[in-house]
From TrEMBL, chain A:
It catalyses: (S)-dihydroorotate + NAD(+) = orotate + NADH + H(+); (S)-dihydroorotate + A = orotate + AH2. Substrate binds at residues 45, 69-73, 127, 192-193. It comes from Alkalicoccus halolimnae. The gene is pyrD. Gene3D superfamilies: Aldolase class I (3.20.20.70). This is Dihydroorotate dehydrogenase. Coiled coil: none annotated. One of its GO terms (molecular function) is dihydroorotate dehydrogenase (NAD+) activity. The lineage of its organism: Bacteria, Bacillati, Bacillota, Bacilli, Bacillales.
From TrEMBL, chain B:
Belongs to the PyrK family. The gene is pyrK. The keyword Iron applies. This is Dihydroorotate dehydrogenase B (NAD(+)), electron transfer subunit. Pfam families: DHODB_Fe-S_bind, NAD_binding_1. The lineage of its organism: Bacteria, Bacillati, Bacillota, Bacilli, Bacillales. FAD binds at residues 51-54, 66-68, 73-74. Residues 1-98 form the FAD-binding FR-type domain. Pathway: Pyrimidine metabolism; UMP biosynthesis via de novo pathway; orotate from (S)-dihydroorotate (NAD(+) route): step 1/1.
Length: 313, 251
């Protein structure tokens, strides 16, 4: 019996598990460990119009149950990605979610338009939430009006479903979510990393060359769960949940909070087999829990308890 | 490259905070190239990331690593007892190439950059090459492996305080070591910079960069190339390296 297949706009998934953007490159490295066709989908590394060299190193630092990264959206640019990275993935039977970033609305529109032509891209994911690139991306993520405008502009040039990846580094995430839904977004991805910092007490300097970085890993999971719980009750489009998933139990928790699929980021670094192992464990756990299909769990926790969300801000 | 729970078969304290651990497992048989590394998972959710440690020696299904206790990950490694297991991914990266045309090799190692040169010295020696080895330490009490290296060639030691061998840094012993055709070096970045300046361009350097994934997917460990190629201006220390041709990357 298949308990795991889920269908989201554009993404017909064998199971609800995909690697998160930026944590899986374009798949080549992990394909040396297992057949990528076992995955529900793959969210590929962010594409920008031009080649990005990213930030200086050190770009990662470890924290309590998490990591900080300040990669800075390094990528070879849309032309190279179309010519060399995406065709390679064609041999796998797995839908792709193309992550898009840029400095201006025009950047997003250009990349969206071009990447929509790739035969194996099934949906777009607008990264309006990268905390590591100065004065870009993030501004779209923190302003509901700008986020909505960007969504509309991308919808106008692409026939693919558009997921908007929300930033947790805002005071009113549900407001941004509602605005992009209104503008035509087909789904949401949440959450991106939380802005953080680590200082080397021997030198007194921040460890990352960029000083600040995005926090990911188990440390951010409670934040992701709260935000998905809140947003999923405000919107009617599906949510791809992510942030600290390390076990099948974590995945169940994301679904109960309101997710319809999940993405796994940092766990791939701890263990290259994280995704296929999670898929197997999830199937077993659902059987144990006597859940006949994973999608029954979406939003199971809704309204069981009314958190005072406004006072927590 | 495989992932396997290797079994600890011995653990030995070589110098203050420096340990040699021997591990056993089938995947070790594929660890054939010196300069490659293993990526060890120590905690469950903390420490979260794997720790890169160089392959120091391999005998059939037995791997030796030498590591310095720095923080939580290496402390947990030091607590392992015989019979315990360590989750190891490896071999990872590109190691030291052995060039047929070069007859005399100069190996230059500093601190915990020394271990990978041991496996290299052994292979060069087995191939009939002449091997000279410069090993740099802070002080005499911190020395390790100097005896073991002497099986393969002449060993020159430097200590920063002059308590043994030449006083100063490894570069201060390069002239003493005499002629060589190719050099191989591993150690902290400032040392690599100095060696590159002093030893010329026919050589290989092994870089230590902070890593996320260790397999080439996260772009945590990139280094710039000196001569930007057309479609590529950077390399990944974990996948394209850690060993690079001298002069290839910006140090
Ligand atoms: C390719 C490669 C080979 C290495 N080989 C050896 C070896 O043979 N023997 C040995 O003693 N050490 C070696 N190191 C360094 C070793 O990886 C670090 O000392 C170790 O990761 C420190 O972990 P920790 O938890 O004890 O320290 P912490 O300081 O608690 O580590 C915190 C974070 O910093 C990273 N980090 C700290 N120091 C380094 C470093 N020098 N290089 C890269 N990342 C670092 C850790 O991986 C971790 O993510 C190697 C490093 C690399 C990149
Ligand atoms: C090294 C690294 C690089 C990332 N790069 C991107 C990126 O290019 N685009 C993006 O939308 N998110 C990026 N992210 C965020 C992840 O996709 C994910 O939202 C976040 O890490 C939370 O999930 P996790 O805790 O499972 O890692 C990156 C995260 C990490 C750790
Ligand atoms: S450590 Fe991830 S790319 Fe090198």
């Amino acid at each position: 019996m298949n308990r795991l297949n889920v269908e989201l706009p554009g993404l017909k998934m064998k199971n609800p598990v995909m690697p998160a953007s930026g944590c899986f490159g374009f798949g080549q490295e992990y394909a040396e460990f297992y057949d990528l066709s076992v995955l529900g989908a793959v969210a590929v590394k962010a594409a920008t119009p031009e080649t990005r060299r990213g930030n200086d190193t050190p770009r990662v630092a470890e924290t309590e149950s998490g990591m900080l990264n300040a990669i800075g959206l390094q990528n070879p640019g849309i032309d190279h990605i179309l010519a060399h990275e995406l065709p390679w993935l064609e041999k796998y039977d797995v839908p792709l979610l193309a992550n898009i970033a840029g400095k201006t609305k025009e950047d997003y529109v250009l990349v969206a338009e071009r990447i929509s032509d790739a035969t194996n891209v099934h949906a777009l994911e607008l990264n309006i939430s990268c905390p590591n690139v100065k004065e870009e991306g993030l501004q779209f993520g923190s302003d509901p009006q700008m986020a909505a405008e960007l969504t509309r502009a991308v919808k106008a040039v692409s026939s693919l479903p558009v997921y908007v990846k929300l930033s947790p580094n805002v005071t009113d995430i549900a407001g941004v979510a509602a605005a992009v839904e209104e503008a035509g977004a087909d789904g949401l991805s949440m959450i991106n990393t939380l802005m953080g910092m680590k200082i080397d007490i021997r030198t007194g300097n921040p460890i990352l060359a960029n000083k600040t970085g995005g926090l990911s890993g188990p440390a951010v999971k409670p934040v992701a769960i709260r935000m998905i719980y809140e947003v999923s009750q405000r919107v009617s489009i599906p949510i791809i949940g992510m942030g600290g998933i390390y076990s099948a139990e974590d995945i169940i928790e994301f679904f109960m909070a309101g997710a319809s699929a999940v993405a796994v980021g940092t766990a791939n670094f701890s263990d290259p087999f994280a995704c296929p192992d999670l898929i197997k464990d999830l199937d077993r756990l659902l059987e144990e829990m006597e859940v006949s299909h994973i999608s029954e769990l979406t939003g199971r926790s809704w309204n069981k308890w009314e958190p005072n969300l406004s006072s927590s801000r | 490259m495989k992932k396997e729970n290797l079994t600890v078969i011995s653990q030995e304290n070589l110098a203050p905070r420096i340990y040699r651990m021997k591990l056993k497992g089938e995947s070790v048989r594929s660890m054939l190239t010196p300069g490659q590394f293993v990526h060890l998972k120590l905690g469950g959710r903390h420490p979260l990331l794997r720790r890169p440690i160089s392959i120091c020696d391999v005998e059939e299904d037995q791997l030796s690593i030498i590591y310095r206790v720095e923080g939580q990950g290496t402390s947990m490694l030091a607590e392992k007892k015989d019979g315990d297991t360590v989750d190891a991914l490896g071999p990872l990266g590109e190691g030291f190439p052995i060039t047929p045309s070069d007859d005399t090799a100069l190996l230059i190692g500093g601190g915990v950059g020394i271990p990978p040169l041991y496996y290299l010295a052994k292979q060069l020696y087995d191939k009939g090459k002449r091997v000279k080895i410069i090993l740099g330490f802070r002080r005499q009490e911190e020395m390790f492996l100097t005896e073991a290296f002497s099986r393969f060639g002449e060993v020159f030691v430097t200590t920063e305080n002059g308590s043994c061998g030449t006083r100063g840094f490894v570069t201060d012993a390069i002239a003493k070591a005499g002629e060589f055709d190719v050099f191989y070096t591993c150690g902290p970045k400032p040392m690599l910079r100095a060696v590159e300046k002093a030893a010329g361009t026919n050589g290989y350097i092994s870089l230590e960069e902070r890593m996320g994934c260790g397999v080439g997917a996260c772009l945590a460990c990139v280094c710039d190339l000196k001569e930007a190629e057309t479609d590529k201006s950077y390399v990944k220390a974990c996948k394209d390296g850690p060993v690079f041709q001298a002069g290839e990357v910006v140090l």
